[in-house]
Amino acid sequence: MDIGIVELSRLQFAMTAMYHFLFVPLTLGLSILVAIMETVYVMTRRPIWRQMTKFWGTLFGINFVLGVATGITMEFQFGMNWSYYSHYVGDIFGAPLAIEGLMAFFLEATFVGLFFFGWDKLSRVQHLVVAWLVALGSNLSALWILIANGWMQNPVGAQFNPMTMRMEMTDFYEVLFNEVAQAKFVHTVSAGYVTASVFVIGVSAWYLLKGQHVALARRSITVGAAFGLASAFSVVLLGDESGYSATHSQKMKLAAIEAMWNTEPAPAPFTAFGFPDQEARRTHYAVHIPFLMGLIGTRSLTTDIPGINQLVNQAEGRIRSGLIAYEALMTVREQRDATPPEVMKTFETHSRDLGFAFLLKKYIDNPLQASQEQIRMAANDTVPEVWPLFWAFRIMAVLGFGFIATMAYFFYRASFRGMRYPRWALWVAVVMIPAPWIAAEMGWFVAEFGRQPWTVDGILPTAMSASSLSVTELALTLFGFIAFYTVLFIIEMGLMLKYIRKGPYIDVAETDDWLRARQEVLAPVARTAPTAIPAE
């Protein structure tokens, strides 16, 4: 396989995936926030909560449609750009994607229509059920997609069949309850909840700075801050869980994130700052926090975390073991049912390392003819580029703690300071709107770039996974996707800004009816309440 074709295919899929993920987090979070707001409306019957539900629901709908448009393309790319990958592991990877389409997406798409067009057709409780089903569908979609992605990170519940030359599922429940997939799911959806909370707070802060839609903005900040604070804590705690699972499922990724070149005495320190030098295999000007990495990665003070150099040596040993499996596989492929039992036994003994032998196909068509130098080169290929992973993880982590501080501050002001906010805090909230998207993109970069050189970790190298396309075809489609997705992004931003400037629709008749029905209760409050609650 031409490496240029592989790299262009990777670039194209990375571009479409990261464009798509601009829409996903807000969809996940807004679906829950809108359902919460409608729940309050049904419980209190206060018109302001219906206005909030409709306003934020409109922004959710715009984002949902653009997310669907960008997400469909990705599934087609598995067949177009990654045909050998689809052939080799399609039995496992395709199952959760099929379930996502048949169960979660249809649920979500069906009830989205009822949500927007059922306000005057359904009762309050019926419409509330619809809102929660939309939220459930959105989050179930994320679950099944992340189960598929989690299997690529930690391929459990499957084995290679030498007769079909493909990976086949052996235990669906092991795939479903894969620890990496479950940790990724809760971490990703929590990040989506933080994204929506920051978005709601930022837009509401803009209204308060302009003196517009004050009642809606104050209540929206209260909901966003409470929901966002819980979600921000969840992101950090579940990110820690992802680090723990990587200790025994993706050791090289963890070592690269930490720029841990050699195994450190337990408990290993955490490198807070430094400049990784991959050529020299050292980190310049490193600032360490003692014991922290050992506690995060192993939950103990006595367990070592292997370094990059030691993992490269292990990879070289696994390549040599994989070559034994590869040689046996060639015999099985030639003799089929007449394969001697001792050959099958040899293959089964070394089959878990077969993927490491495939790393040699980057350098030579027949791995059995590889030189010692090529084996060493293939072992070194198991190390991803360290400095981008090192810094992307730290940007994500710093932003994560920043979200906790921001949410805690707004929650405090909403709960104990009468929903009054200093102007500087409101400006911070507005400026912070893009931050959760930056953190989310950094997180996906760490997850996917850190898995290289594997498409399926330890099973199928990326260099073997791509389709036999030409550079011209890939370049043209790459620029086409960039142009098309950029247009979609501009449309998304234009529609979002249009409806934010327009503000909520206020049903005057409904509000007047609610006020008349509660006039006796509200009259004493109105005589004693201040005319306005200004921002500080």
TrEMBL record:
Keyword Transcription regulation listed? The answer is no
Q: Which family does it belong to?
A: Belongs to the cytochrome ubiquinol oxidase subunit 1 family.
Q: Which domain of life is it from?
A: Bacteria
Look up the record and give one Gene Ontology term from the biological process aspect.
Answer: aerobic electron transport chain
Q: Which GO terms describe its cellular component?
A: cytochrome complex; plasma membrane
Query: Which Gene Ontology molecular function entries are recorded, alphabetically?
Result: electron transfer activity; heme binding; metal ion binding; oxidoreductase activity, acting on diphenols and related substances as donors, oxygen as acceptor
Entries under PANTHER family matching the protein: CYTOCHROME BD-I UBIQUINOL OXIDASE SUBUNIT 1 (PTHR30365:SF0), CYTOCHROME D UBIQUINOL OXIDASE (PTHR30365)
- The UniProt entry lists the main location of this chain as membrane
> Which chain regions cross the lipid bilayer?
20-43, 55-72, 92-117, 129-147, 185-209, 221-239, 391-412, 424-447, 474-495
Q: What is this protein called?
A: Cytochrome bd-I ubiquinol oxidase subunit CydA
Q: Write the record's keywords in alphabetical order, separated by commas.
A: Cell inner membrane, Cell membrane, Electron transport, Heme, Iron, Membrane, Metal-binding, Transmembrane, Transmembrane helix, Transport
Q: Where in the cell is it found?
A: Cell inner membrane
Taxonomy, top ranks, is: Bacteria, Pseudomonadati, Pseudomonadota, Alphaproteobacteria, Hyphomicrobiales
From what organism does this protein derive? Answer: Rhizobium straminoryzae
Please give, as recorded in its UniProt entry, the membrane topology of this protein. Answer: Multi-pass membrane protein
Per the UniProt record, one Pfam family is Cyt_bd_oxida_I
